[in-house]
Amino acid sequence: MKTIEIAEILWRNTDSVTKWIQVAALVFAAAWTFWTFREKEAPSLETPARVSVEIREKWHQEPTPGYCWVSAVFSVADQGVKSFDVASVEVSTWRINLPTTQTSPFFIDIPAFEKNKPLATLHPSSGLIGRYAPKTDLHDAIEWIFYGQPSTDLFLTRIEVFDKSNKSLGQASAWDQICR
C-alpha cells in the first residue's frame, strides 16, 4: 500500500475513528470524576461526629463522709463541612467489682463488660441534643453519687448519640477506679 492509499482510507474513516476516540475520552473522564469524588469529596460529606467522654471522681471525707462523687463529661463535635442533628443520647454505666486478692496483672475486657446489663441506662434530655454546625462542639456532664466505703471498683460509662432516624452517629467509653 502506498502512503496515498493509507491517507485516503483514513480520510474516509475519520468520522468513525473520531467517534471512538471521543467515547474513550468520555469513559476516561467519567472514571476520573468518579474516583476523584469518591476519594476526596465523599469523605468530607459524611457525618463527622466526634463523641468523647472524660470521667472525674472525688471521694468526699468532709462534711459528710462515706460517699463518692463521680462526674462524666460528655462531648459531641462536628469536625466536618456538613451540619447534622443529634436527636437522642443514651448513657450507660457499669460498676465493675475487681478482685482484691489479685497479685499479678490481669486482663480487663471492657467490650465484654459492656455486653452485661448496665447499672443504669439513661436517656437524658441533654444539652448535647440539637443541630451541630460545622466546626462546633458541645459538652454536658452527668453526676453520680455512690455511698459506702472506698473501693477499687471500676466505673465504666458509655455515651452513644443518635440522629433523627435513630442511626448512631458515634459512641465513646471511659473507665476509671472510683471511690478509692
Features:
180 residues; alpha+beta; four-stranded antiparallel beta sheet; three-stranded antiparallel beta sheet; 2 domains; single chain; 26% helix; elongated
What is the CATH architecture term of the largest domain? Answer: Sandwich
| Spans where pLDDT lies below 50 across 5 or more residues | none
Fraction of residues in helices? Answer: 25-40%
Question: Can you count the helices?
Answer: 3
Number of strands: 9
What's the arrangement of strands in the largest beta sheet? 5-4-8-9
Residue-averaged pLDDT, rounded?
A: 79
Give a quick account of the main beta sheet: strands, pairing sense, barrel closure: 4 strands, antiparallel
Structural notes for this entry:
It is a single chain. This protein is an alpha+beta fold and 180 residues long. It has two domains: 3-45; 49-177, Immunoglobulins (Immunoglobulin-like). Helices cover 26% and strands 40% of the residues. The chain has helices at 3-12, 14-45, 110-114, and strands at residues 49-60, 67-78, 84-86, 88-96, 120-122, 130-132, 137-147, 154-162, 168-177. The strands form three sheets. A four-stranded antiparallel β-sheet has the order 5-4-8-9. A three-stranded antiparallel β-sheet has the order 1-2-7, with no helix packed on it. A hairpin with a 6-residue loop joins β1 and β2 (67-78). The chain starts with a helix and ends with a strand.
